[in-house]
C-alpha cells in the first residue's frame, strides 16, 4: 500500500527537538513501523498550488494522512484523481479539510484521533481569553520595545471575574473550557449546542444552556467557538451575527478559521463592535501574509491574540495523535477495521452520525 503523509517541515528546529513528531522530518515516528509492515511511505509538506507534490503522489495513494495544522486539502478534484484512495486519516481533530461528501461517494473512510488534543486546545482558549481581556500582548510588546507606559495598557485591560462567558459548542473542548473557567468566578457560563450537557455535569460546572445562539451572544462578554466546521457553521460569524453580539465583546476561535468571515471580524475590531479576537485557526493554512487577522487592532492598538495553528499541537498532543494514527493504521492493515467508534467521521459511504458535528460526547 502507498501512504502519503502531509506535514509541515520542522526545518532547523528538527535538530533542537526530536519530539516534533508531526513534521516531515519525524513523520509521526511511523516510518520504520510502516515499512516493516511492507508498505510505502511518501512524506511531503508541498501541498498547495498547481502540481504540488501532494497532487503528484495522491494519484496512486491508498491512504493520505495529514494534520489540521498544515492540512493537505483533500478536495473533490483531488479525490477524483486518487483512484486508489481508501482512507484519509487526520492526525489530530477536525476533518473539514476533506470533502466529506466526495469521500462518501467513493466510500473513502475518514478518521481522526478524537480527543487527542482537546486538553491542549482548552488550555489555549483560556490563555487567549486571559491574554485578550488582561491586554497582555501590547503590555509585553511595550516592555520588549524598552518602554514603560502603564496607562496605555490599563485603559483596555479588564478582569475575567464577573464576566458572562459563552461557548458555541460544548463537546470535548467546550466542556473542558467551561470547567477550566469556573474557578475564575465568572458572572455566568453559557452554552449553545444541539446536544445538552449531561445534567449532572451541567450542575457541577454551573453552566446554563441557551437555546438560541443570538440570545446567548447578546448576553455574553466573552464568546468562544468550539464547534466543528460544517455546512451550518461555515461563515457563521459574519457581519450580521457579530452585530448581535454585545458591543465590545471578545471572541475566541480555536475551532476553524472558516467559521468566521475574515474581513467581517477585522471590521468589527476596527469599529469597536468586537474589543478583541484571538485564536489560532485560519483559512487557508498557512495564512497568506496579507491576511487581515495578522494586523487587525482595536482603537487602543490592541485586541489581537492570533497565533499560527499551535493550540492542538503541543509536544504532549503530538505523542497522542501520533499514537492514535498508528492505532487507526493497525486496524486498517489488519483488515479488521475495528476502529474506535468516536474516531470515525465517515465510513462505507455514510456519516458516522447524522451530521458531522453531532457526534457522541465522552
Ligand atoms: P466534539 O465533537 O467533542 O464537540 C463538538 C460539539 O460541537 C458537539 O457537542 C456538537 O454537537 C457541537 N456542534 C456542532 N455543530 C454546532 C453548531 N452549529 N452550533 C453549536 N454546537 C455545534 O469536538 P471537539 O473535540 O470539542 O472539537 C471541536 C472542534 O475544535 C473540532 O471539530 C476542530 O475543528 C476544532 N479543533 C481545533 C484544534 C486546534 O488545534 N485549534 C484541535 C482540536 C480540535
UniProtKB/TrEMBL annotation:
One GO CC annotation: cytosol
UniProt EC number: 1.17.1.9
UniProt-annotated binding residues for NAD(+): 172-173, 193, 228-232, 254, 280, 309-312
Protein keywords: Cytoplasm, NAD, Oxidoreductase
Leading EC class: oxidoreductase
Location in or out of the cell: Cytoplasm
Domain D-isomer specific 2-hydroxyacid dehydrogenase catalytic: 35-335
Domain D-isomer specific 2-hydroxyacid dehydrogenase NAD-binding: 126-311
Catalytic activity: formate + NAD(+) = CO2 + NADH
Site, Important for catalytic activity: residue positions: 256, 309
Classification via InterPro entries: D-isomer_2_OHA_DH_cat_dom, D-isomer_DH_CS, D-isomer_DH_CS1, D-isomer_DH_NAD-bd, FDH_NAD-dep, NAD(P)-bd_dom_sf
Cytoplasm as UniProt keyword: yes
SUPFAM superfamilies with a match to the protein in the record: Formate/glycerate dehydrogenase catalytic domain-like (SSF52283), NAD(P)-binding Rossmann-fold domains (SSF51735)
GO MF, one example: formate dehydrogenase (NAD+) activity
Domain of life the protein comes from: Eukaryota
Binding site for substrate: 93, 117
HAMAP family the record matches: Formate_dehydrogenase
Family of this protein: Belongs to the D-isomer specific 2-hydroxyacid dehydrogenase family. FDH subfamily.
Oligomeric form and interacting partners: Homodimer.
Record function comment: Catalyzes the NAD(+)-dependent oxidation of formate to carbon dioxide. Formate oxidation is the final step in the methanol oxidation pathway in methylotrophic microorganisms. Has a role in the detoxification of exogenous formate in non-methylotrophic organisms.
Official protein name in the record: Formate dehydrogenase
Organism in which the protein naturally occurs: Geotrichum candidum (Oospora lactis)
Classification of source organism: Eukaryota, Fungi, Dikarya, Ascomycota, Saccharomycotina
Amino acid at each position: 500500500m502507498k501512504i502519503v503523509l502531509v506535514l509541515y517541515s520542522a526545518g532547523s528546529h528538527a535538530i533542537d527537538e526530536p519530539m516534533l513528531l508531526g513534521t516531515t522530518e519525524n513523520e509521526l515516528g511511523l516510518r520504520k513501523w510502516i515499512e516493516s509492515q511492507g508498505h510505502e511511505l511518501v512524506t511531503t509538506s508541498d501541498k498547495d498550488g498547481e502540481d504540488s507534490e501532494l497532487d503528484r503522489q495522491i494519484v496512486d495513494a491508498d491512504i493520505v494522512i495529514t494534520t489540521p495544522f498544515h492540512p493537505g486539502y483533500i478536495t473533490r478534484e483531488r479525490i477524483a484523481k486518487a483512484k486508489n484512495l481508501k482512507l484519509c486519516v487526520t492526525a489530530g481533530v477536525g476533518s473539514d479539510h476533506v470533502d466529506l461528501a466526495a469521500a462518501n461517494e467513493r466510500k473513502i473512510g475518514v478518521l481522526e484521533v478524537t480527543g487527542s488534543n482537546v486538553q491542549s486546545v482548552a488550555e489555549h482558549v483560556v490563555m487567549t481569553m486571559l491574554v485578550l481581556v488582561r491586554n497582555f500582548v501590547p503590555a509585553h510588546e511595550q516592555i520588549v520595545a524598552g518602554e514603560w507606559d502603564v496607562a496605555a495598557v490599563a485603559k483596555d485591560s479588564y478582569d475575567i471575574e464577573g464576566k458572562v462567558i459563552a461557548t458555541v459548542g460544548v463537546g470535548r473542548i467546550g466542556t473542558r473550557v467551561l470547567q477550566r473557567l469556573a474557578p475564575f468566578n465568572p458572572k455566568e457560563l453559557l452554552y449553545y449546542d444541539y446536544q445538552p450537557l449531561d445534567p449532572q455535569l451541567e450542575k457541577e460546572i454551573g453552566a446554563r444552556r441557551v437555546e438560541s445562539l443570538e440570545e446567548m451572544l447578546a448576553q455574553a462578554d466573552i464568546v468562544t467557538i468550539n464547534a466543528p466546521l460544517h455546512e451550518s457553521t461555515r461563515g457563521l460569524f459574519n457581519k450580521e451575527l457579530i452585530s448581535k453580539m454585545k458591543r465590545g465583546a471578545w471572541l475566541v476561535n480555536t475551532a476553524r478559521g472558516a467559521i468566521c468571515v475574515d474581513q467581517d471580524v477585522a471590521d468589527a475590531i476596527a469599529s469597536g463592535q468586537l474589543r478583541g479576537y484571538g485564536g489560532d485557526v485560519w483559512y487557508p493554512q498557512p495564512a497568506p501574509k496579507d491576511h487581515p487577522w495578522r494586523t487587525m487592532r482595536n482603537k487602543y492598538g490592541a485586541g489581537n491574540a492570533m497565533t499560527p495553528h499551535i493550540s492542538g499541537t503541543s509536544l504532549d498532543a503530538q505523542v497522542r495523535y501520533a499514537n492514535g494514527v498508528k492505532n487507526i493504521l493497525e486496524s486498517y492493515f489488519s483488515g479488521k477495521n475495528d476502529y474506535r467508534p468516536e474516531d470515525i467521521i465517515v465510513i462505507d459511504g455514510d456519516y458516522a452520525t447524522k451530521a458531522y458535528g453531532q457526534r457522541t460526547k465522552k
